[in-house]
Write a structure and sequence with these properties.
heterodimer, A: 332 residues, Rossmann fold, 12 helices, 8 strands, elongated, disordered C terminus, B: alpha/beta, eight-stranded mixed beta sheet
């Protein structure tokens, strides 16, 4: 067993609106607080973390936000320029080639190009050295798009190798596979809400990653748990009181509204409680439950409150050596 | 009235496109709009992408008889569900003028294959493409990005002209712009210019091809060779050459799809939900639609808390909680326990109030964006997943009602947090 934060790359994903960015930021802040050098990569075009540090956008090159915490965004065209420059050995040649609209359009329209370029840059960033010759970042946390995209990443090395059996791209595919399928280097963190369907879909995705690609999810995060405030018995007693005579209709109305609020809170907490056992069953100790923040906006203090919940020894899925056959992402 | 503007779209549009970021209830909204249209007498198809299983159940798309990318009738199922239940009142859900609603689930991988088959009517050519190593490797990637496949299928359904209205749910894609441009993007991948580069690459079984090499194509080949490796260039060239004869047909289809999206009979409905990201997405979306000249109909805002008004006033909540637990004390509850319960009641109300204030601000920003010709529909947070058609009917009705609520009440910070007006009821 090893900690979630002991890997060098974490891909944080889940369905839309489950709080991926919040969870990714909390992981980065936790590792930073533990004294690690962390890079947070935001995949979406609009940065959520940059504004918390007084920036407009996540920059295309890593920028230091605070000691131990760097931030960068992912831009498809920029990534393409970087990739072409590396492959052609001459940046200027790549720039010239990509200045042609047809050439640029062709590459940007290639199926799975986003996945290919992301993986390419990720493995390069992971291998980047700092001034003292050691790795520049201890941990790279990626705030990823929806889970379908992340599941798709695992098929990319196989696809690239199928097309380019030999040559420079086949080699790139090999190093992508080495990163993706090495549980000591890269972990997937699935984020879900404590509701029935998101939970079912998370369990299915975990199963699919395991069955099709031999990948164990590093952690499952259930986000937005409602606190247990007023229980059913108390609510029943309170409702009985409201029905008693001797209350003005205005007061009764307000009392009913208050009980409505209590019932909403209780109902949501109870629904979460019903789905948690299923998650615990599959995720065991790798399940992390985070409370609802009752905010619709991301704030640094709430991220740090969540970060404090990640224990440094946070258990993670059993680490298995990457099976040989999985290097290209095809498992029998 | 805002509701009229929503109903105008439902009654007159030929195509409704539900756009929005992931997790805002886009698929459910599309299904509810389609059902609403069908109940108002229009022959409707809803094309759903990546629906939750409960919604599939509601639409009857979860059974063994369901074939992906094939329309399946829904309304007979509604009758069945109503007959099975004992709720007579539910009969009113099926309006006498209700006609047909078909639903269809997109399978992108299958759709990608069907698309190529439609594009390549010539069997020999089709064999060539389907057997191509590059094509086979790319197929999963095409299937994994439903944008192009969904647009293609939409164009095909529109061409068949079997429905008065098609409601299109859009994929949980990176952004709406990418979805709308998927057709053009594909045309960047396979086009005459790209073919020209590869036309000069010798096929595997010939050492050279006659003809002159222009300086440009030599340079292009040099670049391609260094990027892809010169060994695979012949295979890649072969893949692109397979498409040479269908290029005009592909372009025609791409243009037809684009024209359909821009048609005055098309309406885009932006689906959103409270939250910083969704709001920003909604803004971007509206700007994009306006920039592209695409017809915007209105916003549907799902999952709004809609806190009863008295809960907006903290002092009032505390007084109500105190009076409730005082009555419990009369019937024997200990004072300390009662005080603790009152505290927890107030805590819950205060947490919901925080959300409500954020939601109200969100709705205000959206209202500022909505012009006179578009609608804003506020739909409350549902406490349960939708898994039956009557629930979906109910959601459609709420969307219509939600427009009125949006037009009438404009909860500002003063009215929601200020002193409570007498007799304020649940909204």
């Amino acid at each position: 067993m090893a900690g979630v934060l002991d890997r060098s790359v974490l891909l944080v994903t889940g369905k839309g609106g489950v709080g991926k960015s919040t969870v990714a930021a909390s992981l980065a802040r936790r590792a930073q607080a533990d004294g690690k050098r962390v890079l947070l990569i935001e995949f979406e075009s609009v940065s959520r973390v940059a504004p918390l540090f007084g920036l407009q956008e996540a920059p295309l090159e890593p920028i230091q936000l605070e000691k131990g915490l760097d931030l960068m965004g992912f831009d498809l065209l920029d990534a393409l320029h970087g990739f072409a420059g590396d492959q052609l050995k001459v940046r200027a040649l790549a720039k010239l080639a990509l200045s042609n609209k047809v050439v640029r359009g062709f590459f940007l329209a290639m199926p799975a190009i986003r996945s290919i370029l992301f993986l390419y840059h990720l493995q390069q960033l992971e291998a980047t050295h700092g001034p003292r010759g050691d790795r520049r970042w201890d941990l790279i946390v990626c705030d990823m798009p929806t889970s379908g995209f992340v599941a798709g990443l695992y098929g990319v090395p196989a696809m690239v190798r199928q097309i380019f059996r030999v040559g420079p791209l086949a080699e790139v595919a090999e190093s992508m596979a080495q990163l993706l399928f090495d549980p000591l280097r890269l972990g997937v963190v699935l984020v879900t809400l404590p509701e029935e369907m998101p939970v079912v879909e998370t369990i299915e995705l975990r199963h699919e990653l395991r069955r099709r690609h031999g990948v164990e999810v590093a952690a499952i995060v259930v986000n937005g748990l409602y606190p247990e405030l007023v229980d059913g018995d108390e609510l029943a007693a309170l409702s009985a009181v409201v029905d008693e005579p001797g209350m003005s209709s205005e007061d009764r109305n307000a009392a009913e509204q208050l009980l409505w609020a209590a019932e909403v809170m209780r109902g949501r907490a109870a629904r979460a409680r019903r789905v948690l056992p299923d998650l615990e069953h599959v995720a065991g100790e790798t399940l992390v439950a985070l409370p609802h923040l009752f905010r619709r906006k991301l704030h640094l203090d709430s991220i740090d409150a969540l970060a404090a919940r990640w224990r440094p020894d946070q258990r993670s899925a059993a680490l298995r050596p990457a099976p040989r056959t999985s290097a290209v992402g095809v498992r029998p | 009235m805002s509701a009229d503007r929503l109903l105008e779209s439902v009654d007159r549009a030929r195509l409704l496109v539900a756009v929005g970021s992931g997790g805002v209830g886009k698929t459910t909204t599309a299904a509810a709009l389609a059902l609403l249209a069908a109940r108002r007498g229009r022959k409707t198809l809803v094309l759903t992408i990546d629906p939750a299983r409960r919604l599939l159940q509601a639409l009857g798309l979860d059974g063994a008889d369901c074939v992906a990318n094939t329309p399946l009738p829904v309304l007979p199922r509604l009758h069945q569900q109503l007959l099975a239940g004992d709720s007579n009142a539910a009969y009113s859900l099926v309006a006498p003028e209700a006609t047909a609603l078909d639903a269809m689930m997109l399978d992108p991988a299958l759709g990608a294959e069907q698309m190529v088959e439609r594009l390549l009517p010539n069997p020999a050519l089709r064999e060539e493409v389907l057997g191509n190593r590059i094509y086979r490797a790319l197929l999963p990637a095409l299937g994994a990005s439903p944008d192009l496949v969904a647009l293609e299928l939409l164009a095909e359904l529109h061409r068949r002209n079997q429905y008065e209205l098609i409601v299109l749910d859009t994929p949980p894609t990176h952004n709406t712009a990418e979805f709308l441009q998927a057709g053009q993007t594909f045309a960047h991948f396979i086009n005459e210019q790209v073919l020209k580069w590869f036309a000069k690459v010798p096929a595997r079984d010939e050492s050279s091809r006659p003809g002159f090499f222009s300086r440009g194509s030599v340079a292009a080949m040099g670049v391609l060779g260094r990027l892809f490796g010169s060994e695979v260039l012949p295979d890649i060239a072969q893949f692109f050459r397979s498409f040479r004869d269908v290029m005009p047909a592909m372009r025609a289809r791409s243009e037809a799809t684009d024209a359909l999206l821009r048609s005055p009979a098309t309406r885009f409905i932006a689906v959103t939900a409270p939250g910083e990201t969704s709001l920003r997405e909604a803004r971007h979306m509206l700007a994009l639609l306006q920039r592209e000249g695409l017809p915007f109909a209105g916003f549907v805002v799902n999952r709004v808390l809609m806190l009863p008004q008295s809960l907006g006033d903290e002092a009032r909540v505390q007084a109500v909680a105190a009076s409730l637990v005082a009555r419990l004390q009369h019937s024997g509850m200990e004072q300390q326990a009662a005080a603790h319960l009152a505290e927890r009641l107030c805590d819950g109300a205060s947490k919901l109030r925080d959300l409500d204030q954020a939601d109200a601000a969100h709705v205000r920003s959206l209202r500022a964006l909505v012009g006179r010709t578009s609608f804003l529909s506020i739909v409350p947070q549902l406490e349960h997943d939708i898994h039956t058609l009557p629930q979906l009917c109910d959601l459609g009705a709420r969307m219509v009602q939600g427009c009125d609520a949006a037009a009438v009440s404009a909860p500002g910070p003063a009215s929601s947090a200020g002193p409570t007006e007498a007799g304020a009821g649940a909204r």
